[in-house]
Amino acid sequence: MAFPEGFLWGGATAANQCEGAYLADGKGLNTADVMTAGDVNTRRRITDGVIEGENYPSHTAIDHYHRFREDIALFGEMGFKTYRLSINWARIFPNGDDTEPNEAGLAHYDEVFDCCREHGIEPLVTLSHYETPLGMQKFGSWKSRKAVDCFVRYAETCFRRYKGKVRYWLTFNEINCMSMMPWTAGGVPNDADEQTRMTAAYHQFLASAQAVQLAHQIDPENKVGMMYGGIFSYPNTCDPKDVQANDEFMRTMMFYPDVMVRGYYPAYKLREFERKGIVLPQQPGDAELLKAGAVDFLSYSYYFSMVVGQKGEGMDVSMGSPETGYTNPYIPQTPWGWSIDPYGLRHSLNLFWERYQIPLMIVENGLGTFDELVEGPDGTPVVHDDYRIDYLRQHIKAMKDAVEIDGVDLMGYTPWGCIDLVSAGTGEMKKRYGFIYVDVDDEGHGTFNRYRKDSFYWYKKVIATNGEDLS
Ligand code: BGP
Description:
This protein is α/β, with parallel strands linked by helices. About 35% of the residues lie in helices and about 15% in strands. About 50% of the residues are buried. It binds 6-O-phosphono-beta-D-galactopyranose (BGP).
């Protein structure tokens, strides 16, 4: 068998994209709650507080907050071994800097984790997935070292409360997004300069390192991973100038896992900071902390590959459509302009495995596209999503090759949006990833009923055969 026994098959979601109930039970506002809906051509806007009449997708999302039992039961039916979800930080610390946690928020996740266990599902919890309490704006969010203390208090609260219920943790979702979308990554304005972004990233590294240490102290069973947003690129041609441009581009991303896995900044990044006059807000003891807080495993998202070349100046890597000025002519794209490159997944697994030699996990992957709900043979609505099955089959095959042929140590696979949810990039509902269709539209209207897609039954079989039967 290619995939090891105990391989963590499952699915992934994020609180702000699925929970809704944005003010329930004492929750505070977070950075996602002030992001309006957009589309493939229109960027989401960040408003100054919640403005009446605007469409904020996080406010209702798919109402997972109230329907998690039904949703987790469906995951159980598919045979999930793990469910990657995030805790909504502002449910636990409504303003971010509160001294005491909100009991109602903590109790909610007790129920969620208990429900997972009832279905034999191991929770994999992201502490901060694309949201930061809005209350932290008063001191500049991650620009300030105060954010480190807020996060560490929050992380410690979770580790203590959910001891024995949760053993797998991720600190920050796609931490390298601080370079591209700092608001999403940590409540830092999107027009922040590089010094500010690097300061905020430095603070997140420190916070993550402290969390790793605390997690281990509180429960030696805990495993904490980093989460890298899957940016991987090929040089546009074999012209060494293109190769160099690509190397330089990849370094703007790879220093994130370098710091979190190795526990120190790579030389190339320190030299770059020197050249640019960027200064990290280092304090005595920080270097030791980063070193001691190296992660146990590396997780990442993989959706597409990119192309970078010497003419890629003014590169814009946005969420809605990854642009570097180049399109790969050899591979197809989704309607949202995301390239489809299963080999790129195997390539990335080898890159990380060769570089770090620590266990890897693919915690996001999938095809976000239009689905049509039609009437099934017995009258039950269904989605015939053979295009999604095809995408997933090819990517699972690529992982299989990486494990079987290349010897990569892969822990698990949690495809993104295992149940349809709000798109982070565009705020749309119609960009769907799920095995489960949710009847809600871009304006938040619908019955919120859940329906199994064809891919639901297919993935169930994949899990039951531990990835052997992909037909
Ligand atoms: C990742 C994020 C997720 C998720 C996914 C798909 O970068 O971690 O939160 O949304 O991308 O992106 P989108 O929702 O824009 O299709």
